[in-house]
Design goal:
The chain contains 6 helices and 30 strands. The chain has helices at 6-22, 29-45, 52-92, 99-103, 113-135, 490-494; strands at residues 145-153, 159-164, 171-176, 181-185, 191-195, 202-207, 213-218, 222-227, 244-245, 270-271, 276-279, 285-290, 296-301, 305-310, 316-321, 327-332, 338-343, 347-352, 360-365, 371-376, 381-386, 390-395, 404-407, 416-417, 423-427, 433-437, 442-445, 458-463, 472-476, 480-487. The strands form 7 sheets. A 5-stranded antiparallel β-sheet has the order 9-1-30-29-28, with no helix packed on it. Strands 2-3-4-5-10 form a 5-stranded mixed β-sheet, with no helix packed on it. It starts with 5 loop residues before the first helix and ends with a helix.
Length: 495
Amino acid sequence: MPVESGSSAAARQAKQKRKSHSLSIRRTNSTEQDRSGLQRDLLEGQDSKLPLSLRSNLLDLFSQIEREFENLYIENLELRREIETLNDRLAAEGQTFEGADLAKGALKTKASHSTSQLSQKLKTTYKASTSKIVSSFKATTSRAVCQLVREYVGHRDGIWDLGVTRTQPVVLGTASADHSAMLWSIETGKCLLKYMGHQGSVNSIKFHPTEQMALTASGDQTAHIWRYMVQLPTPQPVADISQMPCEDDVDFSDKDEADGEAEGPNDCPSIRVATTTLRSHQGVVIAADWLVGGKQVVTASWDRAANLYDVETSELVHSLTGHDQELTHCCTHPTQRLVVTSSRDTTFRLWDFRDPSIHSVNVFQGHTDTVTSAVFTVGDNVVSGSDDRTVKVWDLKNMRSPIATIRTDSAVNRISVSVNQKIIALPHDNRQVRLFDMSGVRLARLPRSNRQGHRRMVCCSAWCEDNTTCNLFTCGFDRQAIGWNINIPALLQEK
């Protein structure tokens, strides 16, 4: 076995002494040498292709790491002793610091001003270190209740978008990748009408604010306006589905239904010709919406432009350019001539048409990935969702920074905001749907199990404010739309 020279051994010994002194580790040089010699003997006895010098250097490095950990351990012991000293001081001045109260993040305080300050410091420090853990176990006296009411099954491919009519009769509309859009009876789940005028995926569906007309956008680079007339069937009793708390923490399997094509409704009437066809885009039309009053519509396309059309003449009024990448969504304000467009360039833009002579634009920059949707609320807010797993609430009067940010664990798709309750519904790539209020407080998560809920990515959500059995609808890649009854107790909404 090679023997170290006297000079190298002395140098290593001096180095170990300096290191031991700097780390305040009390150990003798002979003990350190014995341990190093024993470990080196063990290394030499092992079969390795590494040179002995390299293995020796590695051994030195590991020894230094061990001493660093030992130093941390000693510091930890010293801190514990300081805490015990502080506890003794509190006890001597008439206070107690018990483990049971510690679990609640509380200190029982009495007496003098100096002692109160010390007590408050301990309380603040402990709360800061354990707030995340404690918040997970907060008891909720009243929880949001979400009930799956009905499933709407009939499309042969994933459903991209859905909406609810603003006029009577109140029906549900769905837009699917199977090149069709369907109208459904909310109460019975029966298909009332099928529109088959597009030659590509139907990416969006929106209803006229006062008339029985629908606006659909498609991958065939067009948007269609078509009229419909439907008669609602007699409502049938809801199936035996018990109410469930929204917090459904069961680990679900990823089993999907058979991938065979679903049987479409055989007795569903169809429309194949549009009343108006809007052409101008050079790419997929991903979304469309009606401006207030219903005399103009706006479309968003993958050609990086949004177009404003006159409904009566089908003429292009404005081409809204400025986005650097493909558009993903567009939305109009319910009471004002405002349009918001979102894009893959991580921004969304606010277009103002209230003054006929000019139209101004404001750019919102706050996301780090594709902005999948941006929608208006009844007030002066815009809510945006993104693939960066965040949702942001913006004030139109102060657009520099969001007033609230919601962070999630999955990309967010087309969101919607309840008009009456101001609740944001977040559909996710991970098949979940979560509900938040405008301040960013989580209210609920829709139940999802092997028996109910979406089995694939949830693409869109839409609220219904017309006192039907369902007040929230969701759709996804599992080819179905689902109607939910959401009951948010007043106590939770006030929070």
